[in-house]
Amino acid sequence: MKRFFMVLWMTVMIPYVTTLVWTGRIRTDTGPEVPAEEFLTGVVAAEIPAEYGIETLKAQAVLAKDIYLPACGSGAGTYPGRGTGHRLSQHEGDGEKWGKEHFREYYGKIRTAVQETEGLVAEYDGELIEPFYCEASAGKTRELAAYPYICSVESPGDLEAGEFLCVRTFTEAEFADKIGRIGGPRPGADGIAGKIQIIERDDAGYVKRVQIGDMDYTGDEVRDSLGLLSSCFHFSSADGKIRVSSKGIGSGYGFSQAGADAMEREQGE
After folding, report:
1. Separation between Cα atoms, residue 43 and residue 149, nearest integer Å
2. Do residues 44 and 112 make contact, with C-beta atoms less than 8 angstroms apart?
3. Quick one: 238 exposed, middle or buried, by C-beta within 10 A (0-12, 13-18, 19+)?
4. CA 20 to 30 Å from 189, out of 20, 31, 106, 247?
5. Torsions phi, psi of 150, nearest 5?
6. Closest-CA residue to 261 (of 142, 120, 113, 117)
7. More confident residue, 233 or 69
8. Widest CA span of the chain, in angstroms?
9. Which of 16, 34, 18 is nearest to 26 (CA)?
């Protein structure tokens, strides 16, 4: 299993090395110090489905340490998010999320993942990485030029993720109203379906620039304004309505949780 954990990180996410630098306790910005293990268990529980395989949970636990370790080591009392998909949490609410029948099993599983990665962090050139991750890529993760360890790799297991394909339909008036909230001149609704053009995509298929009428928007701006799950999207129109379909869940950068879980299940067969 140790060999699989290394393969999982190298092929799905990034090259990495590990080091023993964890201090053992964390001070949160809302209260006194708590044991690092307890704190990280709550964070991991909030960030990834507990149904996923133990090695996938371990990878997420290592990312959680890269998020919080700098603040812990510096003695700071606040913990700014780094990367994507981050949010503070504690595990108390997961009894309701998982149901009483699964709480003991899932909480124990995540706690084990945290315990078995004690002392492990992800580094590049001797420095902690910026821990990017997403629920599921569009089938291929994205490259991020500013971070040499965030490279594009095939991740076919993402296609199995729930809500991998998201389809939303808008009238022209609804579409124009939502796009208008991005800022700048509001586009006119009449005939707007014929004034949409995707200008640029990255190598993984994610939209970088979209022209709508006379305005130029980023793919992320359009994603957020339309409430899509990913900026890997396509437009079509029929009967005066605009259909937008997106693939993937989240930014598409870095560690793909669904892709890692699919790989773990495949390796276990």
Report:
1. 24
2. no
3. exposed
4. 247
5. -95, 90
6. 113
7. 233
8. 61
9. 34
d(CA 161, CA 56): 14
Cα separation, 40 vs 64, in Å, equals: 7
pLDDT digits (tens, 9 = 90+) for 209-251: 999 999 999 999 999 999 999 999 999 998 889 999 999 999 9
Tokens encoding 37: 């293990």
Beta carbons of 231 and 246 less than 8 angstroms apart: yes
Q: What is the pTM of this model?
A: 0.79
User: CB–CB of 165/244 below 8 Å?
Assistant: no
Calculate Rg over the CA atoms of the chain: 20
Give residue 214's region: left, alpha or beta (phi > 0; psi -120 to 50): alpha
The pair of structure tokens assigned to 136 is 């599921």
Structure tokens at 43: 């964070």
Q: How many residues does the chain have?
A: 269
CB atoms within 10 A of CB 89: 14
Task: Collect contacts of 56-59 with beta carbons under 8 A, ≥24 apart.
Answer: 56/8, 56/257, 56/260, 56/261, 56/264, 57/109, 57/110, 57/113, 58/5, 58/113, 58/116, 58/117, 59/5, 59/8, 59/9, 59/12, 59/13, 59/255, 59/260
* Average pLDDT of the chain, as a whole number: 82
